[in-house]
Automatic annotation (TrEMBL):
Name of encoding gene: ftsE
Identification of the protein by name: Cell division ATP-binding protein FtsE
Span of domain ABC transporter: 2-228
Family (UniProt): Belongs to the ABC transporter superfamily.
NCBIfam families for this protein: FtsE
Membrane-protein topology: Peripheral membrane protein
Any one GO molecular function term: ATP binding
Subcellular location: Cell membrane
Length: 228
């Protein structure tokens, strides 16, 4: 469902951030994208979102070559991907409910759909009782669960999580991982860039390791570092 074919990304000034990447990511995959700072993880994510285009190669997502879609159709492409960030990026003057509903208003969902869908996803992330709270009234883990609810409320086929546990204590980080794994089990592909070694080692999911813009390892049940 995601396929990268001979993908190379060279930024202006000649920085080669990704070099000849060939990958297939299946619908049911939960991917940990690991590698040192500067390895190309953010660039990889930007290419999936079409925030950047590759210098060479093709990126096929849900049967469509995203390097060939017109500017006009980029918003539709982005709707198929939910994104969660390390720093949550919630709207501070909106409640939990409004933050999630806003993502549906942007795509002009009907108020009937919004009234049905928002409570459903708040239930999925365990925040039904916080619907009327504002972000500053929530813990870090709760804020991240709001941002996950917002990311999935429009039923994306792919969820990208960029260091989603980076600002959380270990116990809270595990709660977030359970939510992400549950979303994956319901049929959403998850691509998570992370430096959280312990999480990657315990979860035993597919690990794609980048170094200097190349895939140096792609393991079905991988660890953070290479093990035998
Ligand atoms: P990571 O997310 O793994 O830290 P990045 O994708 O951010 O890696 O960076 C990969 C390489 O591309 C690095 O050498 C970085 O300096 C370079 N890079 C990233 N963004 C840009 C940009 N907009 N212009 C030029 N070079 C960039
Ligand atoms: P499962 O996929 O078996 O239902 P979960 O989704 O609950 O498991 O968690 C995913 C993985 O994370 C499992 O391997 C589980 O053992 C591990 N895990 C969950 N919570 C913790 C925790 N608090 N500390 C360490 N590992 C944990």
């Amino acid at each position: 469902m995601i396929e990268l074919q001979n993908v190379t990304k060279t930024y202006l000034k000649g920085v080669q951030a990704l070099t000849n990447i060939n990958l297939k990511i299946e619908k049911e995959d939960f991917i940990f994208l690991v590698g040192p700072s500067g390895a190309g993880k953010s660039t990889f994510i930007k290419l999936l979102l079409k925030e950047e285009d590759p210098t060479e190669g093709n990126i096929i997502i849900n049967g469509q070559d995203v390097t060939k879609i017109s500017r006009r159709k980029i918003p539709y492409h982005r709707r198929s991907i939910g994104v969660v960030f390390q720093d949550f990026r919630l709207l501070p003057n909106k409640t939990v409910y409004e933050n999630v509903a806003f993502a549906m208003q942007i795509i002009e969902a009907s108020s009937k759909e919004i009234r049905r869908q928002v409570p459903m996803v708040l239930g999925m992330v365990g925040l039904s009782d916080k619907a009327s709270s504002y972000p500053h009234q929530l813990s870090g883990g709760e804020r991240q669960r709001v941002s996950i609810a917002r990311a999935i409320v429009n039923n994306p086929s792919i969820l990208i999580a960029d260091e989603p546990t980076g600002n959380l204590d270990p116990e809270t980080a595990w709660e977030i991982m359970k939510v992400l794994k549950q979303i994956n089990r319901r049929g959403t592909t998850v691509v998570m860039a992370t430096h959280a070694r312990d999480i990657v080692d315990v979860m035993q999911q597919r690990v794609i390791a980048l170094e200097k813009g190349r895939v140096v390892r792609d393991q079905q049940r991988g660890a953070y570092d290479y093990e035998g």
